[in-house]
Write a structure and sequence with these properties.
mainly alpha, elongated, 8 helices
């Protein structure tokens, strides 16, 4: 099918596509972004549309796949919040202590951003999203040992970057020998 033919059908189909997108994500703003991405994908792959098949089913499939991918991406990334917007995280009391706490939070956020993508993903899945190592391994499609080693490197790199020092010795119980 020609790009022009897909384009013509797409324009006529936009209200249906938007209605489906709103029903999936329950947010008009997010639905509009999703519809735009689906239209871009459809126009870019117009030559793959097979004449004689249902255009609506093709478009709904594109939209739904984008929605699923977006959901996976959001779960992996976790919530995105600006630390500066959370004044309650800063120390109460003197302005000096509050400023120091804000600087510490910013340095930790910068250190997390500086981690490799692999280390950052594991750190966020395990420490922020509280997934078990096995669950994180399934999400990332890697062995559990890989999750454990990436997490250890991420923690070590964070500690070095922020100047946080570890406790001198773990107890025998924590090591599993007690």
């Amino acid at each position: 099918m020609t790009g022009k033919h897909v384009e013509d059908q797409l324009v006529a189909f936009l209200p249906n596509l938007r209605r489906f997108a709103v029903s999936l994500c329950r947010s008009r703003d997010h639905a509009d972004d999703l519809v735009q991405a689906a239209c871009e994908r459809a126009l870019a792959s117009a030559r793959t549309f097979q004449e004689g098949t249902r255009f609506d089913a093709w478009m709904f499939r594109i939209l739904r796949n984008l929605w699923i991918d977006d959901g996976r991406r959001r779960r992996t990334a976790g919530p995105q919040e600006d630390i500066d917007a959370h004044h309650e995280l800063a120390a109460r009391g003197s302005g000096e202590a509050e400023a120091e706490t804000r600087l510490t939070l910013k340095s930790v956020a910068a250190a997390i951003d500086d981690l490799s993508e692999e280390q950052r993903e594991v750190l966020l899945l395990v420490c922020v999203e509280e997934l078990a190592y096995k669950e994180a391994a399934e999400v990332l499609d890697v062995p559990i040992g890989t999750v454990m080693s990436r997490l250890a490197r991420a923690r070590r790199n964070l500690a070095e970057a922020t100047g946080i020092t570890a406790t001198p010795e773990r107890s025998a119980v924590a090591k599993g020998t007690g």
